[in-house]
């Protein structure tokens, strides 16, 4: 990545139209962030500690929990830092790193959603061959592909954004460094970088969304063919949590990157839903709507409580 900039740092202006609410926001976001970390940590512990959950479906769910702990950690600690009255400055390299990991983890999570949809498709449409198709080598290969796509996507977007010179204003009208907020500060024409950013994000999101739709179209047909109401209910409950999580993830992405004219307040509000609220909701969705995870979580809680009492 070439460094043409004369700037050493950027100033994050935070969430637009929230001046005077820093203390309230600090309390709210601190609670959400802590709940997100603990919720996903307990889901991960529940999966690791229960031998009945050592199957591909829960292997992917465990990885999703890890991503849901890492993804908000890219932006939330810095936001909490300046909401507490500390400096709003972020170094040039820190801004680039934040943008890279935001898109790296976000793109990887999007790919993982598609992998999980395919896993559900195999489990429901080909149950007798499920363990043969989703054998360990295949699962690891799918996960590695998801991480590779995320890394490639983030590298392209970060390179195009930070190859531009930044020599003038350094006030980022957002609560973290992202492409729509950083590019207007460039001292050169940013049209190509904007086009690459919107095209890459849109293409990847659309491709992953279509892959999910194809998987769930086949799943829907398979569910309709199940004769027993109990079988249909079990198949539906397996997929409903995942579908809910996907809608929470893709909705904000579409609004943020495909809006013709960026709106700072709308972008910040939607990004908060995507960065902070959605990872918290995932832990609630999968713990409340999945009987196996819920049962394992109860055992983890009991063990924690009894250990603390002893």
From TrEMBL:
The chain crosses the membrane at residues 21-47, 53-71, 138-162, 201-224, 236-259. It is a multi-pass membrane protein. InterPro entries: GPCR_Rhodpsn, GPCR_Rhodpsn_7TM, Olfact_rcpt. GO terms for molecular function: G protein-coupled receptor activity; olfactory receptor activity. SUPFAM superfamilies: Family A G protein-coupled receptor-like. It holds the Pfam family 7tm_4. Its main location: membrane. PANTHER family: OLFACTORY RECEPTOR (PTHR26453). Putative odorant or sperm cell receptor. This is Olfactory receptor 148-like. It comes from Bos indicus x Bos taurus.
């Amino acid at each position: 990545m070439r460094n043409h900039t004369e700037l050493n740092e950027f100033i994050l202006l935070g969430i637009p139209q929230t001046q005077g609410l820093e203390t309230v926001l600090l309390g709210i976001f601190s609670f959400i962030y802590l709940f997100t970390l603990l919720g996903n940590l307990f889901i991960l512990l529940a999966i690791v500690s229960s031998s009945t959950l050592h199957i591909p479906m829960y292997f992917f769910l465990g990885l999703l929990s890890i991503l849901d702990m890492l993804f908000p950690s890219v932006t939330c600690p810095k936001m909490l830092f300046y909401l507490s009255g500390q400096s709003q400055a972020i170094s040039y390299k820190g801004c680039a790193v934040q943008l890279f990991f935001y898109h790296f983890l976000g793109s990887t999570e999007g790919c993982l959603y598609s992998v999980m949809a395919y896993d559900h498709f195999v489990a429901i449409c080909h149950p007798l061959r499920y363990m043969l198709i989703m054998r360990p080598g295949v699962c690891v290969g799918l996960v590695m592909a998801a991480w590779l796509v995320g890394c490639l996507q983030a590298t392209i977007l970060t390179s195009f954004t930070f190859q531009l010179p930044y020599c003038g204003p350094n006030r980022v009208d957002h609560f973290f460094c992202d492409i729509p907020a950083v590019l207007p500060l460039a001292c050169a024409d940013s049209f190509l970088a904007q086009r690459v950013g919107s095209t890459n994000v849109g293409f990847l999101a659309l491709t992953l969304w279509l892959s999910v739709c194809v998987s769930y179209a086949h799943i829907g047909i398979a569910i309709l063919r199940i004769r027993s109401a109990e079988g249909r209910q079990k198949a539906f409950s397996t997929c409903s949590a995942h579908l809910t999580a996907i809608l929470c993830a893709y909705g904000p992405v579409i609004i943020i990157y495909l809006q013709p004219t960026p709106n700072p307040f709308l972008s910040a509000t939607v990004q908060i839903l995507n960065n902070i609220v959605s990872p918290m909701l995932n832990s609630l969705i999968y713990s409340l709507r999945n009987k196996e995870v819920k049962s394992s979580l109860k055992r983890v809680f009991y063990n924690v409580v009894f250990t603390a009492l002893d």
